[in-house]
Amino acid sequence: MRHSKIILSIAIMLLTISAGFIAPKKKVVFFGDSITQMGVNPGGYICRLDSLLKTKVQGNNHELIGAGIGGNKVYDLYLRMDDDVLAKNPDVVVIWVGVNDVWHKVWGTGTDADKFEVFYKAIIKKLQARNIKVILCTPAVIGEKTDFTNQMDGDLNKYSQIIRDLAKTNNLPVCDLRKVFLEYDKQNNPENKEFGILTTDKVHLTDKGNELVAEEMLKVIAGF
Amino acid sequence: MRHSKIILSIAIMLLTISAGFIAPKKKVVFFGDSITQMGVNPGGYICRLDSLLKTKVQGNNHELIGAGIGGNKVYDLYLRMDDDVLAKNPDVVVIWVGVNDVWHKVWGTGTDADKFEVFYKAIIKKLQARNIKVILCTPAVIGEKTDFTNQMDGDLNKYSQIIRDLAKTNNLPVCDLRKVFLEYDKQNNPENKEFGILTTDKVHLTDKGNELVAEEMLKVIAGF
Amino acid sequence: MRHSKIILSIAIMLLTISAGFIAPKKKVVFFGDSITQMGVNPGGYICRLDSLLKTKVQGNNHELIGAGIGGNKVYDLYLRMDDDVLAKNPDVVVIWVGVNDVWHKVWGTGTDADKFEVFYKAIIKKLQARNIKVILCTPAVIGEKTDFTNQMDGDLNKYSQIIRDLAKTNNLPVCDLRKVFLEYDKQNNPENKEFGILTTDKVHLTDKGNELVAEEMLKVIAGF
Amino acid sequence: MRHSKIILSIAIMLLTISAGFIAPKKKVVFFGDSITQMGVNPGGYICRLDSLLKTKVQGNNHELIGAGIGGNKVYDLYLRMDDDVLAKNPDVVVIWVGVNDVWHKVWGTGTDADKFEVFYKAIIKKLQARNIKVILCTPAVIGEKTDFTNQMDGDLNKYSQIIRDLAKTNNLPVCDLRKVFLEYDKQNNPENKEFGILTTDKVHLTDKGNELVAEEMLKVIAGF
Questions:
Q1: B2-13: average pLDDT
Q2: Alpha-helix runs per DSSP H in chain B
Q3: A69, A97, A115, A151: which to substitute to probe chain D, counting the most D Cβ within 10 Å?
Q4: ipTM of the predicted structure?
Q5: Where's the SGNH hydrolase-type esterase domain (chains A, B, C, D) (predicted)?
Q6: Which chain B residues have a beta carbon less than 8 Å from that of D107?
Q7: What confidence tens digit (pLDDT) does each residue in D34-77 have?
Q8: Contacts of D182 in chain C (CB under 8 A)
């Protein structure tokens, strides 16, 4: 009896250790703006993604870390990536930026498209130099109208295309939230509302918005 | 012989007079910005429309008058309508404005959507008070890219919709150049060029652009 | 005794009537933006000016009428001058506009300097054609910092100079509130605050601001 | 005879070597935008400064290196500082940036004041971590009018003050070109011209402008 208990204990210990070896914890940093800053709150997309990974992905072992700061543009990410991303030794970094680069043009401090690309590239390069897996996301929406009258749609599409092209060139997965949000709103916003479907205010996410983002990210992150 | 000559002369005179009574000349003023200012040049849309009316419309008797000034926004039209339009006693006024109201936002001096509507309404009201027929046009394009990445497309669609709604409310014909240009570019701009199809520089018309505008306007004006 | 009382009464009545003939009521319309809209409130500059005229100016007989609407730029004044000014048959019109023409450039819908001048001129011309006395005012401030770091100061000075030049050219009195506010803040804002001295929010008036405006306007209006 | 020649040769060699030891070449990198990019051209401020250092400063031994790129803002400098500055192992870096951060607000892609400061600080910190001497410069002008009507003056003064404060906090020398240009124009631009005194186009330097910058920089750099 005593022997069997000891053997069982050892077996459990070995299993635990081997599990550790088989599936070491994967650190995933979510690097972005206010949408990501709010993503770690209860109901936020990072919280939801954590639940989804735990319930839907067998043997999952991800540690999700939020690194979002309100008002951030692509060059703000570049500036703080040493402290807020590299210092955490992540295995995977999900970059989700672009809304403020476009939006802030309205009051004079957006980002030129060519510089958006240059800084985005520099971030990718620096992460890859550390053998960190990189996942790109396109900026979702600024306004949810479905009759093509959202003021910033032209630029959002342009900057999203820059990101898709960077993903292709660098052979990186892209979570195309722009596409997903446009399609969802087309189906679910028959009244052509400016916000209230996936966003509370044209930009920040409702519960449904957070759910949709979590589901989309799951598809890409589960594989890592 | 002499008698017959006199009778012929009288007959010709009478015919001329009666022709004058049957088809009195209709004055059409084209009221707009630089696109219309250039429209009176050889090859311009007003010139072409004049030819089309003469060759294609039986018994046509229109006098086309250009009243376009570069850089004009809707409130500029309102300011100069007494001198440049009403003073000419037109039968019909074609209003084509909106590109600068949207475009000039880039450097800080565009027109708010609500004020665009208010001034547009005021112009219509003042023309109708004089029993002048009014034809509305939507602003065509600022950039001809067909992948939805033209920066100003959202606003152009919004301001075009304001014009379409004003046409509906006031029971006025609308020459929907925005729609026509988008459809033409979709068919004829497979390389996703920013300009060079219907415009020389994203805004001002090529020969093909002038031709297309003339054809579209013909459909609306021929009826008057 | 009775006779003398009756004679006195008649004399007083006649004096009252004649006073009415000698000094008929002068209608003064204040034509402007939100600052003027708030000017008719208790403590507002129009209210204060009314008190000052009644207490300080012998034989005063002015009727002050507010015609301010929030967000108005010079072209908005032009649009509504028939309904809101001319329809009231004023003797004097005080034009105070310019802050929004400059300020709204920040989000894309300010007014170009050359068009500001053209519309301002058109308003003056239309008032003068009706023999209405016109008083011009320069826009006061957008920010009260005294170390020359208010973002819009360059343009405010430029548009104020346009107004001063229009006053000179048209031989009109100008109430130079820009100058008065700059001097007051220089003396009374040693801490270089952005607002809180003459404005509550960089633009709209504190009690002291309303008092200063009323005093300055008194100097110009008392003479009419 | 032969001996004396050998001794002379040795003496010259020793002198050369000792000169090298006494005054090792000091590398000065000029880090900035188009103004600095043009500064290395004949007549440019870097060229002129080189001449001044050679003729006016005894025992001078500076090597001046231009590192200016047109259109650069403070975050562009941060992005390329490894390649364009640190890789050159400079002893001194002169930072001259700010015009585009303010100017480009006009078309929507300027830099917020708080972010201007954050990036500027980050550049200083990274240079000081390498024991590189840092010299700060304030942005000179965007427009030379002397009646306080240059559109961007408020912001230029604000951003210049940020730089002066950073210099004070970090105990760094500052070449206050904003102050120098304002004073020079006040004395030498009685006609209130927008450009043509120190700039060819409101921003880029005339011969006189380059001369003035070279003279001002000489005062600060000679000491290093």
A1: 65
A2: 2-22, 34-37, 45-56, 74-84, 99-103, 113-128, 153-169, 177-188, 207-221
A3: A115
A4: 0.88
A5: 30-212
A6: 106-107
A7: 999 999 999 999 999 999 999 988 777 899 999 999 999 999 99
A8: none
The set of chains that have 3 or more CB pairs under 8 A with B is A, C, D
Among C142, C153, C163, C179, pick the best mutation site for testing chain D contact (most D Cβ within 10 A).
C153
Average pLDDT estimate for A68-72: 98
d(CA C33, CA C80): 12
Under DSSP, the state recorded for C28 is E
Strands of C42-172, DSSP E: 62-68, 92-96, 133-137
Does C147 contact D154 at a Cβ distance shorter than 8 Å? no
**What's the CA gap between B49 and B31, in Å, rounded?**
15
Query: Cβ contact (<8 Å) for C148 and D155?
Result: no
Read off the tokens for D43. Answer: 């007549």
Q: How many CB atoms lie within 10 A of CB A70?
A: 12
List CB contacts (< 8 A) between A118 and chain D.
Answer: 79
SS3 annotation, B200-224? CCCCCECHHHHHHHHHHHHHHHCCC
Mean pLDDT over the full length of chain A: 93
**Domain A24-221 indexed as CATH 3.40.50.1110:** yes
Please answer whether residues C97 and C119 qualify as being in contact, where contact means their C-beta atoms are separated by less than 8 angstroms.
Answer: no
Confidence (pLDDT) at C60: 72
Distances (CA, A) of C107 to A201, B102, D80: 18, 12, 31
Which of D76, D108, D122 is opposite residue A110, by nearest beta carbon? D108
Of the partner residues A148, A155, A158, the one whose CB lies closest to the CB of residue B157? A148
